[in-house]
């Protein structure tokens, strides 16, 4: 299936939902590219996948790196393929939160959006389809 990078606990501001857990896995080839980029960071990179909410856990599987232009503080995906509802992208050191562009595009169009800086500090945004509310919290990712 892929490597499990981490099990993320995300605290939710809505009392009715309690906590949400995210199980994050990667296709092995995609994982190796992302891990290499985190270790030898030069430019941002984005990858996409699928997410399903099952038994109280968002199961996110990152499986593809779409064609993109990469820069130190920006990644431009030429075309996001249809049929994917999760996105993962790598930011430079110390930038473990979503940019304005991330909020305006990625977080509005994907059920689960994950950003991580090269040290593994990151944020997750889960779209609540019932109320169109965005839930964001931080975590630490450990590259295996």
Overview of the structural elements:
The chain has 144 residues and is α+β, with helices and mostly antiparallel strands. It has a single domain (3-140), classed as Cytidine Deaminase, domain 2, CATH 3.40.140. Helix content is 15%, strand content 49%. It contains 2 helices and 10 strands. The protein has an 8-stranded mixed sheet with strand order 1-2-4-3-7-8-9-10, with helices on both faces. It has a two-stranded antiparallel sheet with strand order 5-6. β1 and β2 form a beta hairpin. It is globular.
How would you summarize what this structure contains?
By secondary structure, the chain is of the alpha+beta class. 15% of the residues lie in helices and 49% in strands.
Strand content: over 45%
Poorly predicted runs of 5 or more residues: 11-17
The average pLDDT value, as a whole number, equals 80
Number of domains: 1
Oligomer class = single chain
Q: Taking strands numbered 1, 2, ... along the chain, how are they ordered across the largest sheet?
A: 1-2-4-3-7-8-9-10
How many DSSP H or I helices?
2
Going by CATH, the architecture would be 3-Layer(aba) Sandwich
Specify the CATH class: Alpha Beta
Envelope shape: globular
- Proportion of residues in helical segments: 10-25%
The CATH topology name reads: Cytidine Deaminase, domain 2
Cα gyration radius (Å)? 14 Å
Largest sheet: 8 strands, mixed
């Amino acid at each position: 299936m892929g490597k499990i990078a981490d099990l993320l606990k995300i605290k939710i501001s809505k009392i009715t939902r309690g906590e949400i857990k995210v199980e994050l896995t990667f296709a092995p080839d995609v994982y190796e590219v992302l891990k290499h980029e985190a270790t030898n960071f030069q430019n941002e990179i984005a990858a996409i996948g699928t997410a399903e909410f099952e038994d109280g856990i968002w199961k996110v599987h990152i499986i593809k790196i779409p064609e993109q232009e990469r820069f130190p503080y920006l990644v431009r995906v030429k075309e996001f393929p249809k049929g994917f509802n999760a996105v993962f992208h790598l930011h430079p050191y110390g930038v473990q939160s979503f940019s304005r562009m991330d909020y305006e595009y990625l977080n509005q169009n994907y059920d689960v959006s994950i950003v991580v800086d090269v040290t593994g500090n990151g944020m997750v945004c889960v779209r609540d389809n019932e109320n169109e509310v965005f839930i964001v919290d931080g975590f630490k990712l450990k590259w295996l």
